[in-house]
Amino acid sequence: MAEPTSDVELMLQVKRGDREAFGLLVQRHRKPLINFIYRFTTNPAESEDLAHEVFIKAFQSAPKYEAKAAFSTWLYRIATNVALNYLRDHKPQLARSLDSGFEEEEGACRPEVRDTVALVEDRLLEREKVLQIRCALAALPENQRLAVVLTKYQELSLKEAAEVLNCSETAVKSLIFRAYSTLRQTLAAVVESRT
Predict the structure, then answer these.
(1) Residue 12 falls within a domain, yes or no?
(2) What is the DSSP letter of 67?
(3) Neighbours of 55 (CB within 10 A)
(4) Are 51 and 78 in contact (CB under 8 A)?
(5) Is residue 40 exposed (0-12), middle (13-18) or buried (19+ Cβ within 10 Å)?
(6) pLDDT of residue 103
(7) What is residue 147's predicted lDDT score, i.e. its pLDDT?
(8) Which sign, positive or negative, has the C-alpha torsion 32, 93, 115, 187?
(9) Could you tell me which of 35, 37, 71 has the C-alpha nearest to residue 54?
(10) Which of 33, 55, 104, 186 is deepest in the core (most CB within 10 A)?
(11) Band of residue 176 on the pLDDT scale cut at 50, 70, 90
(12) Residue 72 belongs to a domain with what CATH number?
């Protein structure tokens, strides 16, 4: 028997009780799913645990699976719900974890350099810019952050992102536009320093 290539075919096999097919889906989507969740938790261990939870929920939901949309859209919808629940349950802890390792200077997130070894200035500046971008992204409202992460980092189409977020494509475009406007304002100094 030839191995199915599409995720939908695999999930339909899982629906019929094929556990090996689910193992293939986990192999295909594990790393992208962990990366997606990491954008919300900023904690590698928590991201892996939550990805595991997503796969458990997906497996438990297999009997109800309908091949109406791409498998990845269905999976990211589950992941979005898990990530949002995690954020709501851990909001005070996340605020502290995002702040730890940073000191507030004139409204910008700046890394504290605790290592006494001299670092190359360019690498340090680049690291600071990356941290500022992460802080700015984390500060966006949930739906805006989700829209950006799904389309920019997970490379889902507007249609797929709309299905994950349970809204219209126009609403996703609006969320992205507002997010990018906020990010442009927040990160103006970072953009200027690169030119």
Answers:
(1) yes
(2) T
(3) 19
(4) no
(5) buried
(6) 42
(7) 92
(8) positive
(9) 37
(10) 33
(11) very high
(12) 1.10.1740.10
Residue 96 in domain: no
In a domain, 104, yes or no: no
- Collect all residues with Cβ–Cβ distance below 8 Å to 148 and sequence separation of at least 6: 137, 140, 175, 176, 179, 180, 183
**The pLDDT of residue 69:** 80
What does the pLDDT look like over 11-70, one tens digit per residue?
A: 999 999 999 999 999 999 999 999 999 888 888 899 999 999 999 999 999 999 988 888
- Please, how many CA atoms are within 13 Å of residue 182, restricted to the half-sphere of its CB? 17
pLDDT confidence of residue 135: 83
Please tell me the total number of residues recorded for the chain in this structure. 195
Average pLDDT in the chain: 80
Residue 107, pLDDT score = 45
Burial environment of residue 97 by CB neighbours within 10 A (0 to 12, 13 to 18, 19 or more): middle
Q: Are residues 67 and 9 in the same domain?
A: yes
Average pLDDT rounded to a whole number, residues 156-169: 90
